[in-house]
């Protein structure tokens, strides 16, 4: 099964209704969607509006979700609530959530399983900090993050793994195509060795970290890079060029 190119947009925090509207109506709705799956992840209060504005072939993702169905968990959102407003996807374990909200590997693994079991598709994020890379620990960090997911998940059909080196997120320091390919190939081999050859072959592994219209083309040519998770550039018209990077 060929892995269809996949591009997610993550506008993170601090965006306005007008910006979301122009992003979706003027940018995303003009993208060519035959060859590429496109998913946009606005802040939670904009999800419903985004779903209503976006072309139906564009997926909508939440930036996080909790792992309880309902109850006294003030401030949290459940998969059932997301499904209620026709949101199909969720990003989990973004490095900002790991760093600022102390999300552990195990917590991300449990949330991933709960979201999948409750009908969402999940983009779990993995990635090393600069100090890990400099200490030669990149793959150890990523394998521990993957193991916590694999320990909890039985069916990988609805997972797209995002490799986001923390040192590349929002810094303008993109990984080189060779650096990204090396990690993507390592993740795929880990899946083959620890889950199954079929899951390794079929699971998309997308790259995130300072992707823009200039660097997307070269990254997209690497054989294990199946798309992108884009932060800053997802808010600009160049997002369409990133979506079309492989065409
Ligand atoms: C992100 O926020 O997930 C991200 C990859 O950001 P940026 O593209 O701005 O580095």
UniProtKB/TrEMBL annotation:
Entry keyword Isomerase: yes
Catalytic activity: D-glyceraldehyde 3-phosphate = dihydroxyacetone phosphate
Alphabetical UniProt keywords: Gluconeogenesis, Glycolysis, Isomerase
E.C. numbers: 5.3.1.1
InterPro entries cross-referenced by the UniProt entry: Aldolase_TIM, TIM_sf, TrioseP_Isoase_bac/euk, Triosephosphate_isomerase, Triosephosphate_isomerase_AS
GO molecular function: triose-phosphate isomerase activity
Pathway the protein takes part in: Carbohydrate degradation; glycolysis; D-glyceraldehyde 3-phosphate from glycerone phosphate: step 1/1; Carbohydrate biosynthesis; gluconeogenesis
Source taxon at top rank: Eukaryota
One record GO biological process: glyceraldehyde-3-phosphate biosynthetic process
CC per GO annotation: cytosol
Assembly and oligomerization: Homodimer.
Protein family: Belongs to the triosephosphate isomerase family.
Name of this protein: Triosephosphate isomerase
Gene source species: Neocallimastix frontalis
Lineage of producing organism: Eukaryota, Fungi, Fungi incertae sedis, Chytridiomycota, Chytridiomycota incertae sedis
């Amino acid at each position: 099964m060929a892995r269809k190119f996949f591009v997610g947009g993550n506008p993170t925090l601090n965006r306005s209704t007008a910006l979301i509207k122009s992003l979706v109506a003027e940018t995303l709705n003009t993208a060519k969607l035959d060859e590429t799956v496109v998913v946009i992840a606005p802040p939670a209060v904009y999800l419903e509006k985004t779903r209503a504005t976006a072309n139906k072939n564009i997926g909508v993702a939440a930036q996080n979700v909790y792992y309880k169905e309902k109850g006294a968990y003030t401030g949290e959102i459940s998969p059932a609530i997301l499904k209620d407003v026709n949101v199909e996807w969720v990003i989990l374990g973004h490095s900002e959530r790991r760093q600022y909200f102390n999300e552990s590997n195990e917590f991300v693994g449990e949330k991933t399983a709960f979201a999948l079991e409750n009908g969402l598709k999940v983009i779990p994020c993995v990635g090393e900090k600069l100090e890990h890379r400099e200490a030669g620990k990149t793959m150890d960090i990523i394998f521990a993050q993957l193991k916590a997911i694999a320990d909890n998940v039985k069916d990988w059909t609805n997972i797209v793994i995002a490799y986001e080196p923390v040192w590349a997120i929002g810094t303008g320091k993109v990984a080189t195509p060779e650096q990204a390919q090396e990690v993507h190939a390592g993740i795929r081999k880990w899946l083959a060795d620890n889950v199954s050859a079929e899951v390794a072959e079929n699971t998309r592994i997308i790259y995130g970290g300072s992707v823009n219209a200039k660097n997307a083309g070269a990254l997209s040519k690497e054989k294990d890079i199946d798309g992108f998770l884009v932060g800053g550039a997802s808010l600009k018209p160049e997002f369409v060029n990133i979506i079309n990077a492989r065409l």
